[in-house]
Write a structure and sequence with these properties.
The chain is mainly alpha-helical and about 525 residues long. The protein contains 23 helices and 2 strands. It has a two-stranded antiparallel ribbon.
């Protein structure tokens, strides 16, 4: 998952400093956003790397994400308390040093070829990134005029997405380019250990350079450690958080959807290398599949660039429901098709993930007033879904012996998100009800067209499921490529009709305020 960037009310009391030091710090902060996304999402490649390296099951391989994302739940509140005492810049330095120290631990873990050792390193990397994320939004907001704070956050998000795409693509070459198969059934214990040490060498080298970069950035920030001494840090508010979670339905549903969104996005990204390697999908090797993972995150980058226009035209709740429905449709196409169509359909889900985090976050904290900091804390903690949902995905894949069956896990997640979007439209906050801007409405007959499209999609899907795809021969029934292609095309048409029908049905109900 790209490092989440949420709004902050923090700002300098004087409307932002514009001296030379703070401008340099701002440039460095943008560089941090670039690196942070890549460091977070390189885990997708490690899942693909460790699976053959340690002969792991799908669930065991997804422990990589569990080790990393569990740090969000463990360190979010402590990091906020530390920031209130150290200030923004010194907290940044602490985060960089924590990541550097954890990255250096990859060297002995690689030399020992220890999977538990790698997991421990990833946990502490996650802890350092959590510390950085607690401070990064207020820093971006503080470094400049309050009036342009949102544009700076948007610019930083763009840097984050670009960093994810480029670093995952390059990381596929560095981490997966040296991958070689080994027959674990015939290899001796000594041969297996030597193989793992050889494969782990590239990991140790990559994280050694990460440590050097992090220490260099920490030194640069330390040079300007007094640049924001004039800015007052926000105090972490814990009191009332539990009561808010227990009594506010909007916060409850928002937290559930952040949990499911992060979980679904990470589950797909983490298991995509294995999925694209399936012979029924694209049959790719580790490096080639890893490079396509970059396109998955690149879709999210493109979606963020165009998302601002979409959110200006339609209510966030309707956008959320439509994007979730589109993700479900693409997953269905991927699950019921074969070859490149199956692979690219799943890759395109990344585009529709693009607006989910900020939209869910804004809807989940809408109208909270003075309780917004507590609500934000609850939703940020729900990012721990990235630890649990991928593991569930892997467990389903292991139990069924079929990765396509495991796609039901993100489908359930997106269904929950789609329902939340509908709920948000039907239950606007008092603030939204009084201040909602105009919205584009659909044509009067669009809903009827949408329902017809959904009905046709169901009929075509049923036809595809019951059609015979084999022919009789003297040796028995044999699958026919032509019939399989026909079935695949039928599922594609059904998925396309389903997505179009859902979009028309959802937006046809739009009403002017």
């Amino acid at each position: 998952m790209a490092a989440p960037i949420v709004g902050s009310n923090a700002g300098s009391s004087n409307g932002g400093s514009t001296n030379g030091n703070t401008r340099i710090v701002l440039i460095l902060a943008f560089a941090v956003f670039f690196l942070l996304g890549g460091v977070t999402n390189i885990n997708d490649l490690l899942v693909g790397k460790f699976k053959p390296m340690f002969q792991l099951s799908h669930a065991q391989a997804n422990l990589v994400q569990m080790a990393f994302f569990i740090a969000y739940a463990a360190f979010s509140i402590p990091a906020g308390i530390v920031m209130s005492r150290l200030g923004y810049i010194r907290t940044f330095v602490l985060g960089f040093v924590m990541i550097a120290a954890a990255a250096l631990l990859f060297i002995p873990a690689s030399a020992a070829a220890s999977f538990p050792g790698f997991l421990g390193c990833l946990f502490f990397i996650g802890a350092g990134i959590t510390v950085l994320q607690v401070a990064m939004n207020p820093v971006i907001t503080t470094l400049g005029p309050v009036e342009t704070s949102h544009s700076r956050l948007t610019f930083a998000q763009a840097f984050n997405s670009i960093g994810v795409t480029l670093m995952v693509y390059g990381g596929a070459k560095v981490l997966l380019g040296d991958s070689k198969p080994i027959d674990a059934a015939t290899a001796t214990a000594a041969q297996m250990q030597a193989y793992r040490v050889e494969q782990g060498a590239s990991i140790g080298h990559a994280y050694m350079w990460l440590a050097i970069v992090m220490l260099a950035i920490a030194a640069l920030f330390w040079t300007f450690r007094s640049a924001l001494d004039h800015a007052k840090t926000e105090e972490t508010k814990v009191a009332g958080t539990w009561d808010l979670l227990m009594t506010n339905r909007r916060v409850q549903l928002g937290a559930l959807c952040i949990f499911t969104y992060v979980g679904a996005e990470v589950a797909i990204g983490s298991n995509m290398i294995a999925y694209l390697g399936e012979q029924s999908v694209m049959g790719l090797g580790l490096e080639a599949a890893g490079k396509l993972v970059a396109f998955y995150w690149g879709g999210a980058m493109i979606g963020r660039f165009v998302g601002g226009f979409v959110l200006r035209a339609f209510r966030p709740g309707r956008v959320l429901t439509t994007y979730a429905a589109a993700a479900i449709g693409l997953i269905a196409i991927s699950a019921f098709s074969m070859g490149a169509v199956s692979g690219w359909a799943l890759i395109l889900v990344g585009f529709f993930n693009s607006l989910m985090f900020p939209t869910i976050f804004s809807l989940g904290t809408e109208g909270l007033g003075e309780q917004t900091p507590q609500g934000s804390g609850i939703l940020c903690t729900a990012i721990v879904g990235g630890a649990l949902v991928p593991f569930l995905f892997g467990s389903v894949a292991d139990m069924t012996g079929n990765m396509r069956m495991a796609l039901i896990v993100p489908v359930v997640c997106y269904v929950i998100i789609a329902l939340f979007g509908m709920w948000a439209v039907a239950n606007p906050s008092a603030q939204t009800s009084s201040g909602q801007t105009s919205e584009i409405t659909a044509r009067p007959n669009s809903k009827s067209v949408g329902i017809i499209a959904l009905a046709l999609a169901a009929l075509v899907a049923i036809y595809a499921m019951v059609m015979k795809t084999s022919v009789s021969t003297p040796l028995g029934d044999v699958s026919n490529i032509g019939l399989l292609n026909t079935q695949q095309n039928a599922f594609i048409v059904a998925g396309f009709l389903g997505v179009i029908g859902t979009i028309l049905t959802v937006f046809a109900s739009a009403k002017k305020p």
